[in-house]
Design goal:
It is a single chain. By secondary structure, the chain is an alpha+beta fold. The protein folds into two domains: about 70 residues; about 80 residues, no CATH class. The strands form two sheets. The chain has a three-stranded antiparallel β-sheet, with no helix packed on it. α1 packs antiparallel against α3. The radius of gyration is 27 Å and the shape is elongated.
Length: about 160
């Protein structure tokens, strides 16, 4: 293979590697700056000791106000429940009596909510800066290609 062929092949391989790394970086950043939605998670009731029947969600760090609990036909009013957004639990308020209807509704319910993953970036300024990293990475790949072409054989194209 001649020198120009080697340069073109090398540039092509480097561009492919850059694009693959770009996709990985973008996906990782997206997971760290965007709360994850969960739709129709089935609930499991814990023990019924001392009026503290609790429903534990599969994820914790629930985004406040994003939780909807629904039985087969309608949304369940969460006024009689205490929601712990940090631990991801829904419990009956201890000052209210647990009725059979409440237990039936809660035992056959689906929850829709949004939660923050363990790697979620809490600080909004850091999230904003992190969201810009893919743009800088794409510009770096573009500048690399331009410099590679210019240094390798770009001058020959100008003379044509």
């Amino acid at each position: 293979m001649n020198d120009k062929g080697t340069n073109i092949f090398s540039m092509f391989v480097l561009i492919i590697v850059g694009v693959v790394l770009f996709v990985v970086i973008v996906n990782t950043i997206q997971e760290n700056v965007t709360p994850m939605p969960i739709v129709n998670e089935t609930g499991v009731i814990g023990s019924t000791n001392d009026n503290t029947t609790a429903l534990t969600l599969a994820n914790d760090e629930i985004v406040s106000g994003s939780l909807t609990v629904r039985n087969n036909t309608e949304n369940i009013d969460l006024a009689n429940f205490t929601i712990n957004y940090e631990s991801g639990t829904i419990a009956f308020n201890t000052d209210n009596s647990i009725t059979a209807v409440d237990v039936a509704n809660l035992s056959s319910c689906n929850m829709t909510y949004t939660y923050e993953t363990d790697n979620y970036i809490e600080d909004s300024t850091s999230r904003t800066i992190t969201k810009q990293l893919p743009l800088f990475f794409a510009i770096a790949i573009l500048l690399f290609v331009i410099a590679y072409v210019w240094k390798g054989y770009g001058k020959d194209w100008i003379d044509m």
